[in-house]
Design brief:
The complex is a heterodimer. Chain A has 9 helices and 1 strand; from the N terminus they run H-H-H-H-H-H-H-H-H-E. By secondary structure, chain A is mostly helical. The longest helix of chain A has 24 residues. Chain B is built from 12 helices and 25 strands. Classes of the chains: A mainly alpha, B alpha/beta. Chain B: GO terms for molecular function: flavin adenine dinucleotide binding; oxidoreductase activity, acting on CH-OH group of donors.
Chain lengths: ~180, ~525
């Protein structure tokens, strides 16, 4: 999802949000949070820092679905990673800027309403965090939700076995002649 | 309970052995060194505009090279796997969105373009739209009567007929419109021998859908055209005031350039990449554009959604996705008044529902388990007719990738509020027990009275208001008004000889209906005019 800011968003997001985006990536670089050290093991694009950031969220967002499929959050995050693989490099880059930003406590507070890193929150706290984030009306918060949670849900349920857990009987069988 | 999972689907893939058909197909993935090819006409993009143009021009005896960025994928590979289908057959694997992330864009990327994944709805361009194009932009020779034979020709070619076997999701709209006294009718579809499976959006596994992949492109190859796939048009070659060819970058399986550049030389180049890709190619090529209009006035039919839960099974994943439409609100305030919207239904498969459900965790899980009893509807706003609806602009990122900047403004949001009301009323009129509009603040409503009260309290702002797009149009507007249009009514680019645009980007506004038949008809007309002109 493209997350570039323009004047309209500046007006809606306010000074703090805009300053965060303008300086966030460089701050993240300075603090060592933004690294270009390639994808994490087993992933196509997500870096280890992204995995550390997103894995705890994934487990809560898809808790019941993963339990039903006896699957791990790692499997679901890899499905999300595969969805990102379809995007253009520039689209992925803007999303990764957002993930870099969310490594910073101040940015995490602004976007999701919590200072603590997601992997330092237990599942009950994370549920509370997600609930707060979902109801935040800040443009940047809604965009982050759309860039992360929405494609994550798609990525999980679009998989054939996961799709069957919804009551969907499945597609017809292809017979190749 | 409806269950098609044991049904065995078999069909003959016309692309199984292209060589045996005598077809010349070049796979860009295997092109590892530079070379030059020559043709009479090069067509960039193999969707609705490119496919129709390729068939007409090659059958008139011109040597055509048809270029497509996507890898060739055909029915033997259409395995009805939702994750694979979106990854392989949609722009950006379904991840495309407008610049500020507010609007998801569903646009095909395939040999055959979006026609491979669309839901087959085939409407003639509304006469009100054609009149508006003539009156406001100086579009010539495209009124209802002069276009009728072109539409009729395509309807016959692609076997367009009104559908009769409506699935339960579409029956919701039919029954509600009858009960509320709203206009509705059956949707004409471009199918032949359709199995009524419901997987149009994942590539038709039976080849019943008369997409470009199984109609005009095979016919063009039969007539001597060459298909070059996995090959992306990088820049146009311009010499003086003339176009002389196109530089192509071949792509590997991961859509990454192989390093080879193919130079396609031709005195005539047709750009048919679809809105977003076509304007981007012209921008990358620095074409003359004195009024800076390339990429401007790009439209999306901003589309909102509603979901109804019923006591009975709906099975929205099976059956023709769209077969009933409602035009009650399309022109209620005239052609250029408050936003008008066309209502249709939508197919719902698990991944798609996952993307649409509200919230996360238990709440989302509870909702998604309702899928078998869920109905889904859409409302598409006609954008581009009102002075407050000027559309978006295609821009280039630093690396040359296109991105559409389309700010959601109050005009769209006000129309979306009314569209939500109409869809919610429709669901309750057909017996839904609860209904939810696509808005992040909205929960399910239990009756129409409650819905009206709570909808009135929703804050209609961008992002929170769920709006998507499956029809990108405009960006290279046609017409006589040079201050707003860059293409003449015959598809020729105003400022370069030999360059033509034949796809939905020439539309000076949105269509106000699913656009494929509009693109076919206008492209058939202009490709035929071009063939006559080239024959001299």
């Amino acid at each position: 999802m493209a997350l570039d800011m323009h004047r309209r968003d500046f007006l809606k997001t306010g000074l703090f949000g805009c300053a965060l985006l303008a300086t966030g990536s460089s701050l993240a670089l300075l603090s060592g949070c933004s690294s270009n050290d390639g994808p994490a093991e087993g992933y196509l694009h997500l870096r280890q820092k992204d995995v550390d950031l997103l894995l705890p969220l994934t487990g809560v967002v898809l808790a019941q679905a993963l339990k039903k499929s006896a699957a791990s959050a790692d499997t679901a995050l890899k499905a999300y990673d595969k969805v990102l693989d379809g995007a253009m490099p520039g689209t992925r880059a803007t999303l990764f800027q957002l993930f870099d930003l969310m490594q910073l406590g101040a940015a995490r507070w602004f976007i999701t309403g919590t200072w603590a890193h997601f992997n330092e929150q237990d599942s009950k706290t994370l549920t509370h965090t997600l609930q707060g984030w979902f109801t935040l009306d800040r443009t940047l918060s809604r965009m982050a939700w759309k860039g992360l949670v929405q494609p994550l849900m798609f990525a999980w349920f679009a998989q054939p076995q996961a799709g069957l857990t919804t009551g969907y009987p499945g597609p017809p069988q292809r017979v190749i002649s | 309970m409806q269950d098609l999972s044991t049904l065995k689907v078999q069909s003959k893939d016309p692309w199984k052995d292209p060589k045996a058909n005598g077809w010349e197909v070049i796979d860009g993935r295997q092109e590892l060194s530079d070379r030059t090819l020559e043709a009479d006409v090069v067509i960039i993009g193999s969707g609705a505009g490119g496919g129709v143009s390729a068939e007409i021009l090659s059958q008139k005896g011109f040597k055509v090279i048809l270029v497509e960025a996507a890898r060739l994928k055909s029915s033997d590979e259409f395995n009805l796997n939702e994750a694979e289908a979106y990854h392989d057959l949609y722009q950006e694997g379904g991840m495309r969105a407008t610049k500020d992330g507010t609007m998801s864009i569903m646009q095909g990327r395939a040999v055959g373009g979006t026609t491979v994944v669309n839901w087959t709805s085939s409407f003639r361009t509304p006469p009100q739209t054609l009149d508006f194009w003539r009156d406001e932009f100086g579009v010539q020779g495209m009124d209802e009567n002069t276009m009728a034979p072109w539409f009729a020709q395509i309807e016959q070619r692609l076997k367009v007929m009104k559908w009769v076997a409506h699935n339960r999701n579409n029956q919701i709209m039919l029954e509600a419109c009858q009960s509320l006294g709203w206009q509705s009718d059956a949707i004409p579809r471009n199918v032949s021998g359709c199995w009524n499976l419901g997987y149009c959006g994942m590539g038709c596994p039976t080849n019943a859908k008369q997409s470009m992949l199984v109609t005009t492109i095979p016919a063009a190859l039969d007539a001597g055209a060459t298909l070059l796939h996995s090959a992306q048009a990088d820049t146009l070659i311009i010499e003086g005031e003339k176009i002389t060819g196109v530089r192509i970058k071949t792509l590997d399986d991961n859509k990454i350039a192989t390093g080879a550049t193919l130079t396609l030389k031709a005195p005539t180049v047709i750009v048919s990449g679809g809105s977003i890709q076509s304007p981007a190619l012209l921008l990358r090529s620095n074409v003359p554009d004195p009024h800076e209009r390339v990429g401007k006035r790009t439209f999306t039919h901003p589309t909102s959604f509603a979901f109804g839960i019923f006591d009975k099974e709906i099975a929205p994943y099976y059956g023709a996705p769209q077969s009933i439409y409602c035009d009650e609100f399309s022109h209620r305030d005239g052609i250029a008044g408050q936003a008008g919207y066309k209502m249709e239904m939508m197919a719902l498969h698990p991944g798609m529902v996952g993307a649409f459900v509200a919230g996360f965790g238990q709440q989302a899980w509870d909702e998604i388990l309702q899928l078998p009893n869920m109905g889904g509807s859409i409302a598409m706003i006609r954008d581009g007719f009102h002075e407050q609806s000027q559309g978006g602009a295609v821009e280039l990122r630093d690396n040359g990738e296109p991105v559409l900047d389309y700010p959601i403004n109050d005009y769209v949001l006000e129309g979306t509020r009314r569209a939500h009301l109409s869809m919610v009323e429709m669901f309750f009129a057909s017996g839904a027990k609860k209904v939810r509009p696509s808005h992040s603040q909205a929960d399910y409503y239990n009756n129409w009275q409650e819905a009206q009260l709570k909808l009135a309290a929703l804050d209609y702002v961008p992002v929170a208001t769920g709006i998507g797009c499956a029809h990108v149009m405009g960006g290279l507007a046609m017409g006589a008004d040079d201050s707003r249009c860059v293409v003449n009514s015959d598809g020729s680019y105003k400022y370069l000889d030999g360059l033509y645009v034949m796809d939905g980007s020439v539309f000076p506004t949105s269509v106000g209906a699913n656009p494929q038949l509009s693109i076919y008809g206008v492209s058939a007309r202009n490709a035929s005019l071009l063939a006559d002109r080239l024959k001299g």
